[in-house]
Amino acid sequence: MSGSGTPILDETGTRPVSRTYWLDLFTVDTWQEFRDHGASVSGFSEARMATVQRMKAGDYLLCYLTRVSRWVGILEVTGEPYFDESPIWASEVFPSRVPVKVVLAVDAEFGVPVLDMRDELSVFENLSNPNMWSGPFRGSPAKWKPADGEAVVRALQRAVDHPIERPLGRLRRASRSVAVPVDGPDDGHVEHVPVEDSVEPAPAQDEGTTHTEIQFLLARLGADMGFDVHVARNDTSRVWKGQRLGDLPRLREHLPQQFDPATNRTIELIDLLWLQGNAITAAFEIESTTSIYSGLLRMSDLLAMQPNIAIPLFLVAPDERRGKVIQQVNRPTFDRMKRPLLGVCRYISFDVLRENLQAAQPYVRYLKADWLQTISESCAPDDV
């Protein structure tokens, strides 16, 4: 979760300067691709170029995730629109582009549900059917009322200051599209866009996912080595080979109380912790298919809130994601911290973990926590 800028306020310091706000639609995937590419360019379809050309430096883009119905970011336009077909997004070119900088940004899991803002946004007013609210979210860019834009800015600032994780669950794929007339200078143009879908929560019993397997293996390893273990509070109902993570031996339901409530809220969402008494011996974030960035943000938040603690941090991911892990750990955001993540965070491959666990089974109870150092590697870039 990040905020690389702050909203510009008027001379009283209490109200955002009047500006133009535009809706900017993303999917979970295109939002991550936008951020992975440097978060400096937003793009739209070729047919929307006439509308994109109305954008000016200083305008705000309100970033909304379709199919999960969440606000995830505020971008500020920093220059003139332009046409460019160089690849950024895998699903489509989106060549009508505008340079931007991030004002506020969060991962999808920490986004603001739009339905939580029913009483703040004018798009929910005077609906004949309260379930038919998704019309204003079917095409972008679209100009929004300043009052609505300011409400979204405030909501996202709260999400950055007081993060609440809401797991995405299993998304129901869009099976149809609707023809939507586009307003503005290209009046009369029709786009076929996906119908806003709902989110189908993931079942509690998610037998067999790789993420759950690795979480289970690390939890069992920690318990066998004599540590208490803490599983992320939103993962305790997950199951691996018939065993629920919340029923594992030596499971610690409550975290040590030496941390303040804000720190505890961050710690309890880390995928797995090993504990010895009140001390955290190791922390693990498992990145199988989800955004690596969200796990790193939890790690960095922990370091920022508790700069004097020394907890070994481990990112556990498949071999094919090794390069992405190293790239993300070395982002300027994390490199410029008082304690850069590179100095405290190490990488463990899924395959290396499995192979070493199998080899260590005869003597696993004699292992010490520093055994993790022997099976992990530095996150320093390969060319350093």
Automatic annotation (TrEMBL):
Domain of life: Bacteria
SUPFAM superfamilies named in the record: PUA domain-like
Listed name of the protein: EVE domain-containing protein
InterPro entries, alphabetized: PUA-like_sf
Organism, scientific name: Blastococcus carthaginiensis
